[in-house]
Design brief:
216 residues, binds 6-O-phosphono-beta-D-glucopyranose, 2 domains, alpha/beta, 6-stranded parallel sheet, 6 strands, binds magnesium ion, DNA polymerase, domain 1, Rossmann fold
């Protein structure tokens, strides 16, 4: 039986993917860097540092530690400006309703996000009280696809992996949840999400019954 549902944040609960991308593009452009759409998808679910490694991996020249630190700092500065303006309107349609339905069924709720801004975003969306546990980028050493963030959430929730479902939008996140031994629902489309147990077009298309049936 499913006893807990652990949500990724960016791209699952909140529509922040575009904000991350714009912030990266702005920070990178200041150093004369550009990166194409083939990189965009790869950035989903990765920590800030791991994202920078992917972006710089597509460049011809090497970057000093100072340059890297400065890009990371500028990216956060731009992203924080978006986060400070976030409101409940930045929630993806259907997300809050689904969270409340899961809660009403007596299941525990968690967040497992690579973002160091996760707590602030949950406050901006007025969702923090719904969650029993929040594990974010400040508490992990390894980026998704490593299972660390999910394993930590399961420990804190006190449930075993096969009693928990992860809800993800990124290939790295699906891989992390499966490596943690959990059930996984992917939100979105495409071959990249094929490792999930269930794929839905958007969070609004995910029914609480289908979600909880995964553990039967
Ligand atoms: C993930 C996003 O949730 O958080 C990534 O999908 C982002 O795009 C990562 O890089 C880290 O976020 P932050 O807020 O710590 O820069
Ligand atoms: Mg995500």
């Amino acid at each position: 039986m499913v006893r807990a549902v652990v949500f990724d944040l960016d791209g699952v609960i909140t529509d922040s993917t575009g904000y991350h991308l714009l912030s990266w593009q702005q920070a990178a452009a200041e150093k004369g860097l550009e990166f194409g759409p083939e990189i965009h998808e790869q950035l989903k679910g990765l920590t800030r540092q791991a994202s920078l490694d992917v972006i710089l991996g597509s460049q011809k020249r090497q970057f000093s530690d100072e340059e890297k630190a400065s890009i990371l700092q500028r990216k956060q500065q731009y992203y924080q400006e978006f986060v400070e303006r976030m409101t409940v309107r930045d929630m993806l349609p259907g997300a809050e309703q689904l969270l409340r339905q899961i809660k009403a069924r007596g299941r525990k709720l968690g967040v497992a996000s690579a973002s160091k801004n996760a707590s602030l975003i949950l406050e901006r969306l007025s969702l923090r009280p719904l969650f029993d546990v929040v594990v974010d980028g400040n508490q992990i050493a390894k980026s998704k696809p490593d299972p660390e963030v999910y394993s930590k959430a399961l420990d804190l929730l006190g449930v075993r992996p096969f009693e928990a479902v992860a809800v993800e939008d990124a290939a790295a996140g699906v891989a992390a949840a499966k490596a943690a031994g959990m059930w996984c629902v992917a939100v979105g489309s495409g071959e990249r999400l094929a490792g999930a147990d269930l794929i839905v077009k958007s969070i609004a298309h995910l029914s609480v019954d289908d979600l909880l049936a995964l553990g039967d």
